Queue: 2 jobs
Job 1
Amino acid sequence: MNKISVRGGRKLQGEVNISTAKNSILPIIAASILSGDKCVIDEAPMLEDVFVISDVLRSISADININEEANRIVIDTSNIKDDSEPSSNLVKMMRASFLIMGPMISRFGKFRLSLPGGCNIGTRPIDLHLKGFSALGAEVNVGHGYVEAQAKKLIGNKIYLDFPSVGATENVMMAAVMAEGETIIENAAEEPEIQDLGKFLNNMGANIIGAGTDTIRIIGVKNMKGTTHKPICDRIEAGTFMIAAAITRSKIKINGVNEEYLKPIIAKLTEVGVKIALDGNSMYVDADSDLKPIDIKTMPYPGFPTDMQSQMAGLLCTIKGTSVITETIFENRFMHAAEMKRMGANIKIDGRSSIIEGVDKLTGAEVRATDLRAGAALILCGLAAEGETEVTDIYHVDRGYVSIEKKLQGLGADVERITG
Ligand code: UD1
């Protein structure tokens, strides 16, 4: 089992390049199903989640060539058949696998796949996705661990999402691109990755207006074709490195960012007292020891992202005074707290809030990455802690960070991956 060992206490310096976004490329790979043609993704992030969704598509006969050296993925979906059913083992590995449902119904008028992520269903339902498919005229059935949908013809409709779910917005958008007439998605999620998916779909021949706003208009087209695309930068990876600078009270340069997407993170780090300066697509992050505690509430974009919550918790553990983080998107996203406590953090969980009392110092310990962002947060805590921290179950982190240890080494951190 791979782990990452961090010997804390070093200041960071130098620069780091941000990869393209995991949450952009996953729906984009799913969307490539729509064309039955060839799509090329340039500057693709080589992440475990990308390999898993590629395997999901391969299990329905897509031909996917991943060139890790060139960071290029070529996807040919011409061999997918209308009765294709993906490997349930792969689908269960990753919730984002469910994003192939919309494109498959759109292209073939029917699809069946196992419910994604088994035990996740209770807390991360797919009801909004299914309501959207039904509104477009699909007959949807759930049972025996499978979801099935079929429609002779999808017909555009007005769909109001009860909650601006990222995945449901994307899945319904992809299902609607070739539906007859016009679809309007209201209360849509506004994340930048949805705007990116809209751009990709439009380059494939779709007619989508407003992706990235709360109202998306989709005028159905007859056919989709292949295209080439470079996903947007990963705002969560950028935010994680911003906190790497802040938690070590260092100054670093982060390249390949988009200020617009980072506004909620910039606002909160500025409130903490971190100095942030933009220079085109680069950002200087400068933190000294005089940082202040703050309160944060996670919200759908453009609010503070839930995917930055645990990393921010790590930083706030090192700042004197009381900070409160309220999580409004997911019910159970404080699993990092128990691990951080092993490092000397003072965190209390009260319902949907975590109350963090800053401590004088964190101390190295063996801790477990309980999920992707929690794992990243523990590595960050390790950078600030006295002594050695070992973060186990690092496969969670590899789902969403490209060579995190190499990027940190490039900034001067004493970090290494231990394999075996
Ligand atoms: C996406 C991101 C993930 C991020 C999350 C919230 C990808 C691949 N993943 O996940 O990194 O943490 O957005 O920003 O882009 N919900 C329902 N019914 C549904 C769908 C969702 O109740 O049908 C609820 C979920 O249980 C959750 C909330 O809506 O409480 C947000 O989920 P959603 O926006 O759908 O997240 P994902 O698309 O799964």
Note: The chain has a mean pLDDT of 95.
Job 2
Amino acid sequence: MEITELQQWGVGKTNPLIIAGPCSAETEEQLYETVKAIKEQGVTLMRAGVWKPRTRPNTFEGIGQEALQWIQDIKKELNIQFSVEVANAMHVEEALHYGIDVLWVGARSTVSPFIVQEIADALRGCDVPVLVKNPINPDLALWMGALERLYQAGVKKIGAIHRGFSTYQKSRYRNVPMWQLPIEMKRQLPGLPMICDPSHIMGKREDVAEICQIAMDLSFEGLIIETHRDPENAWSDARQQITPQTLGEIIRNLHIRQASSEDIEYITHLEELRTQIDHSDREMVELLAHRLDLVAQIGVWKKKNNVAAFQLDRWNRVFEARKDWAKNANLRERFIVDLFNLLHVESIRKQTEVMEADESETESGLRVES
Ligand code: PEP
Ligand code: MN
């Protein structure tokens, strides 16, 4: 894909790109006051939901077309740019008619190839930038597929918004970030601008700043932050919106890391550390091979004595001991549990493979070549 560089999109003047504005356009006054205060913080690309995909019915579902007229008037008066969510061909048509500068596809639309295709078809021949939020479920192919549909319709100014993934498990996040997914997306499409949506990831205004900084540390190209002049009384997502003043503080406190450095001392030390990591990874691989070889030997021994491959009590003891060792070594318990679970699955596979091997094996477990 030959995606147009973010700098060539002609939107937003900040680096990183900051998009801010209310979850929803509520009244003309609310929108005007909010974006005026946001502009005073140096942000020029706004957001506002005009059609709102609400989880439950009988909640505020957006103002619709009337809000597009407010946006058009405010854009002219304050000399700013606007982005809105579109979820069907009619939204695209109306948004373009009212001169919206950037469109985004919401998380609930990205999951539906029919909807995404409809939006892509409506955008044929248009030059408007489009951002695609990740689908609500952690499915990289679905996210990628939505970007491909737009690209194939001729939209070259495309970017992704990482807004976290829905989970049924109890979590401190509204949508768990699973940072490995946007990182993998960037690995597969290096030219793709990646914008972080800390508001929908966190769901709580207190922790928005923390997520913004993580996104900067991971070299994201931008942030989209829900901002409202009176967050507590917002008509949607009241818990996660911040004031324009807080937005300004967050932006000013961001540590923007360089993508890389030419400094010779930096490069030399980085190379030293990377060499050590290579050594340690090689040792780990050799140790894993050794461990699995011991497992295979146990398999042969159990087979000879007609004992089952898996013994629950031994496994429980193994697990407890590893957790203690991990604690003493200052490793996170969750990490060690996940790692040993993986190792356990492979060990069982290895042992059953050895035990099921046909009878042409010698007593030591080695296959006799015929
Ligand atoms: C939004 O940006 O207000 C929104 C509805 O977000 P998402 O599609 O990420 O849920
Ligand atoms: Mn919202």
Note: The chain has two domains: 6-253, 264-362.
